[in-house]
Amino acid sequence: MSETVFRARALTKVYRMGESEVHALRGVDLEIRAGEFIVLLGPSGSGKSTLLNILGGLDTPTAGDVRFLEHQLTGADEAELTRYRREHVGFVFQFYNLIPSLTARENVALVTDIAVSPMPAHEALAWVGLGERLDHFPSQLSGGEQQRVAIARAIAKRPQVLLCDEPTGALDYETGKLVLEVIAKINAELGTTAMVITHNAAISGMADRVLRLGNGRIVGEEKPARKLTPAEISW
C-alpha cells in the first residue's frame, strides 16, 4: 500500500462570530494515501473548504491533530506553514486569481521563482495544453484556459498534493471537462495526490474514493466500482 500523506484525528474547527460560534468541523478523522484522487462532496456549509484549507496549511484547527508525512501541522507557526505550502502543496480555486498585466508564462513563473525545484513555466503550461499560449494575457484567454494557467501555476513547483476547491464551478460543461481532464492527467501521470471539492456528484465517478461531508463531519465514504475518465462523465 502507498504511504499515508495526510492523517487527521478528531479535527475540529470553531469560528467565533460575535457572541455566536460556528462549528465548521466536528471531530473529523481522515487518512489520505499518496497518489489518491479524492472527491469531497457535500452541501454548502458542510465543512469541505474548511477541511481542505486546514490540510493545505491555509487555516489551523481549533482542536485535534493533523499531519502531512513527517510534518506536524497542528501547532505549526505561520513561517512553518508558509514553508509547507511553498514546498508541498498546489492550490486551485474556483476563481483563477491571475495577474492581468502578466502573461500566462509570467503568471506561472511567479511560483517557479520561489519553489525549491520548479518545473519551467513553459513545461508546466505544456502539461495543461497551453504550450502555444505562453505569451497571452489573461484577457486574451477563455475561462477554461485561465483555469488551466492556474493549474499550471499550481503544479510548477512539483507539489506532492494538489488541492482543488470547486475548480469547475465557474465553467460551462465542456470547459469543465477539459479542466477535469488536466487534473486527472496530473494525478495519473505525475502521481500527484489530488483532492477536489465539488457540489457535482457526477464528478465523483473520477475518484478513487469519495468522502461525503455533512454538518462538519464525514458522513459517508464510497469507492466507485470503476474509475471513470472525464469524457465518460455527464452532468
Protein described:
There is one protein chain. The protein is an alpha/beta fold and 235 residues long. It has one domain: Rossmann fold, CATH 3.40.50.300. Helices cover 28% and strands 29% of the residues. The chain has 6 helices and 10 strands, in the order E-E-E-H-E-E-H-E-H-H-H-E-H-E-E-E. The strands form 2 sheets. Strands 6-7-8-3-9-10 form a 6-stranded mixed β-sheet, with helices on both faces. A 4-stranded antiparallel β-sheet has the order 2-1-4-5, with helices on one face. Helix 3 packs across helix 4, helix 3 runs parallel beside helix 5 and helix 4 packs across helix 5. The two termini are 33 Å apart. The mean pLDDT is 92.
Strand content: 25-35%
Which CATH first-tier class would you pick? Alpha Beta
Gyration radius, to the nearest Å?
17 Å
Number of domains: 1
Q: Compute the number of strand runs.
A: 10
Mean pLDDT score: 92
Structural class per helix/strand content?
A: alpha/beta
